[in-house]
Amino acid sequence: MSKREGDERRVQEERMDPVRLAIVGCGGMGRRHLHGLAELTRVGFANVALAAVCDLNTRNAEDLADEAEALLGKRPPVYSDLAAMAKQEEGLEAVDVTTDSGSHHRVATATLELGLHTLLEKPMALTLRGCNMILAAAARAGRVLSIAENYRRDPINRLAKALLSDGAIGQPRLMLETVVGSGNRIVITPWRHYKMSGTITLDAGVHHADILQYYMGEPTLAFGRGELHERYRYRRETAGPGGFYEKWADQMPERIEATGEDALYGTVYFESHGLAQWVFDSAGHGQPLNQRLIFGSTGSLACPGDRNGRPIKLYQDGKAEVTGDDLLEYAPSYRLDPVAAALFGGERVCTYSFPFHETDRKILGWEYHEFGRCVREGAEPEVGGLLGRRAVALVNAVFESGRLGRPVTIAEVESEEVDAYQREIDEYLGLV
Fold it and tell me: Among 353, 369, 402, which residue terminates a domain?
């Protein structure tokens, strides 16, 4: 049997026995995940089935149940208590935790202790103590823990990784990861601007931390600092990614006083001897910038960012720019699996032109499918607890470096040996 035939048979078997799953957290991210599940169902690969929804805010939970009925044809039961849901929902196997970042350590630990396999939105937790608490709960429970890191699942990032692995630019030496923009507006929700609930530099910056490790390998050392540039932020452009947050716009204050860093400036060293210059500035005015460049020993890649479908450009000494389908010659290992191929229209996609909300739900649908497969097979997710923790460590390592005035290793952050920046958060959360 060929690998492709084996993949197709496995997918057929998974569809026959879907994992019964509840969405825990029925705000904007919960809505986005619901649409991802609906997209997976639409293309015929659903190996997870929505069994319930749960939120302390019962209005949000009822609204999500209504939306689920419209999208999936069946209204799930609504809960406001995790333990009650686990006890009353017969056959419930797993949860998808999409609560606010500051509650992840508490909610994910509770779901694991209830014996439920857990798909957890990024960031894994606000601090390394929170991450380690979740890892310990997963180990005790013997359940799958998957961190919902979606940027690396963009087919364009899959192609970039294949180009790097297949030697298109030789040995990667330098990565420039730069995002500047947003000015002084409230980005999506107010809580993303408070240190004790999850700053935008962690909540969004952890995506870029994961891309750094996806492209360049294991980070070992970081040096830099965080900044709070915009003390006051104002309500503008309230719809958020894909428009999923617009329904709560009238509940948002006109102005907030921020307490968490809105910019991160760092240098990251990798085990491979590569280096990255990393800027994530969510207080930038004037011309916005989103740039991802990788330089190697024989060439360079210009990557388009995430979830926009634009093509990669390859440059090699003395040769013309390579882009589009011509890139495939330099990435022979690049193949999307059957589920991703169905979602994005082919095994070797080089570009796509879906609107953001459609791209978002396709990537989230693919994420769901991997989680369902791992539950059924007892397999380790691509982004499990250790990789999820490392991304959080990388963000916090830059902040710890700024506080200490020296480079810090990722290992000393992960082990909680260095925590000068995080300790205030841990004290607030009751983790120390």
Answer: 353
pLDDT at residue 4 in the model: 56
Inter-residue contact 226 to 264 (CB < 8 Å): yes
Tokens 């995790």 belong to 82
pLDDT in tens, 125-175: 999 999 999 999 999 999 999 999 999 999 999 999 999 999 999 999 999
3-state SS, residue 199: coil
Which domain, by its residues, includes 220?
152-353
* Per-residue burial over 261-286, b = 16 or more CB atoms within 10 Å of its CB, e = otherwise: bbbbbbebbbeeebbbebbbbbbbee
Identify the three-state secondary structure at position 192: helix
Helix axis angle, 155-165 relative to 205-216, nearest 10°?
A: 30
Q: Is residue 390 part of a domain?
A: no
* Domain assignment present for 417: no
DSSP category for residue 301: E
Query: 265-275: per-residue pLDDT in tens?
Result: 999 999 999 99
Are 260 and 201 within 8 A, CB to CB?
yes
Evaluate if pTM is beyond 0.90: yes
| Structure tokens given for 294 | 């990788």
User: Which residues contact residue 410 at a Cβ distance below 8 angstroms, ignoring those fewer than 6 apart?
Assistant: 218, 219, 220, 221, 222, 390, 393, 394, 397
Q: Would you call the peptide bond into 123 cis, given omega within 30 degrees of 0 as the criterion?
A: yes
